[in-house]
Design brief:
This protein has about 260 residues and is α+β, with helices and mostly antiparallel strands. About 20% of the residues lie in helices and about 45% in strands. It is built from four helices and 17 strands. It has a 17-stranded antiparallel sheet that branches. It is globular.
Length: about 260
């Protein structure tokens, strides 16, 4: 009996250690699962043009800083570069150039994470912005070209422009979350053939996330038919847009944790 009484604390300690080991092992497994979640940081996009045949158009590469902010965009067709810089006092600047255009510099100071005035080196008047109470872009004025943005809850539904409605667009909401490192709704802007469109809507500012909250989902421009494919882990593999003339583009995404695309 005395021996058993002496053993009981030892047995209790052994049981405690055993249970604790199982608990911490389970926690460790959970941490491993969290840390092994597939990355949604997009480091590259391979672009294909679709006509009667599918042809390779070029590559776009993206770099980020330690805070996962976009620092650079490089394209090889056409040759183009965008560089982003972030100051300590909410100042952001970026410059861009291509084989077809000279260097342009943009500077802005953020208020509540949003830009209200963007100054460009190639134009006298800045682009000004306003936002709704939820932090979504409401309007922009680019040297007299005024864009009005309409939202349906957390997704943009249309853009109307004055004068003449040159830059009008309508959108429908997909079921695909727009929660990647890049706002994937900027892809359609990059292939828009309307004159000076990328500059009018400030696509490069949207890429940097300085123009208010992005749409929660991928929104589909009604001028195009969209098609998607996915990796086995559920991430987007590519996005294809076909216009009313049966021509378009396909964007093949590459992620930070993937050396090869499936």
């Amino acid at each position: 009996i005395i021996v058993m009484n002496k053993l009981r604390p030892t047995i209790k300690l052994a049981l405690f250690i055993s249970v604790a080991s199982i608990f911490f092992a389970a926690c460790s497994d959970d941490d491993d699962k969290k840390s092994s979640a597939p990355s949604k940081v997009i480091t590259g996009i391979k672009v294909y043009k679709i006509t009667d045949v599918i042809s390779y158009e070029g590559d776009i590469d993206f770099t980020y800083d330690k805070d996962k902010r976009l620092t650079g965009v490089r394209s090889n067709a056409p040759l183009a570069t965008i560089n982003y810089s972030y100051g300590d006092n909410s100042q952001i600047s970026y410059n861009y150039s291509s084989e077809n255009s000279p260097l342009v510099e943009m500077t802005t100071t953020l208020e509540n994470g949003r830009s209200y005035v963007c100054k460009f080196s190639n134009q006298d008047s800045p682009i000004t912005y306003s936002y709704n109470n939820e932090g979504y872009l409401k309007s922009s004025n680019n040297n007299g070209i005024v864009l009005e943005y309409q939202w349906n809850t957390k997704n943009m539904s249309s853009i109307t422009s004055t004068p003449r409605g040159t830059y009008n667009s309508e959108y429908k909401v997909s079921t695909i979350a727009n929660d990647y490192s890049l706002d994937l709704n900027t892809l359609v802007q990059c292939i828009d053939e309307r004159q000076n469109y990328v500059n009018v809507v400030n696509t490069f500012g949207q890429l940097a996330g300085i123009l208010g909250k992005r749409s929660e989902n991928i929104i589909e421009d009604t001028y195009y038919t969209y098609d998607y494919s996915f990796l086995q882990d559920g991430r987007l593999k590519d996005i294809t847009l076909i216009d009313i003339n049966n021509t378009g583009y396909s964007f093949l995404l590459h992620y930070a944790d993937s050396d090869n695309i499936e």
